[in-house]
Structure formats: structure tokens, C-alpha cells
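Duplicate of earlier report; Lycopene cyclase domain-containing protein input re-posted below.
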Amino acid sequence: MVSISGGVVFLAGQAAVLGVLVAAVLAYRRAGVALAWATVYGALLGQNADHYLLGLPGRPLGERVVALVGLDGLVFVGVEALALGTIAWVVGAGGRLAVERVRAA
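Output:
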């Protein structure tokens, strides 16, 4: 049996909101889900870059860069991007279908 004690998950709220809004607009404009994922990933990765490179001034630059490009952090941001990008794409594509049906009626 595997047990994990404690742990906190941080989500960059403003970056996530921006990425989700842009991804939903792209889905409304008939862009694919992969572009929605990439949009959210870019927004979240940009926030991470701001945090690690500009928000930790007391640490050496090399240490900050290593923290930014660490595999666990990049994968975590990827999982967030997959979840949020998929939700945004479904909302955007659903909005497009709803608008098309209203216009056709």
C-alpha cells in the first residue's frame, strides 16, 4: 500500500485563468484541443519562469534555472495544462455549437 502524507498543490491562478480564456476562445474559433493544451501550458510555464527566475533573488541563477526546468515541475504543469486545456476546449467548442444552433433556428 502506498501512502503519501501531506502535500500542497499550487495553481497559478491568474496564469490559469488567462490560459483557459484564450484556449476557450481558440476552441470557439475551431482550433484543436492540442492548441488549447499548448496555450494553457505556455501561460502556466510563463508564470513558473517569473516565479523561479525573478521571484527568488537570493538564490544563484543556476539554481533558479535548474528549478525551472526540473522534470517533476514540467510534468506537473503539463498535467495541469491537460486538465484545464481540455475543460476550456470543451466549453469553447460547446459555446460555438450553441451559437451555431441559435443562428440556424
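DSSP finds four helices and no strands in the chain.

Merging into the original ticket.
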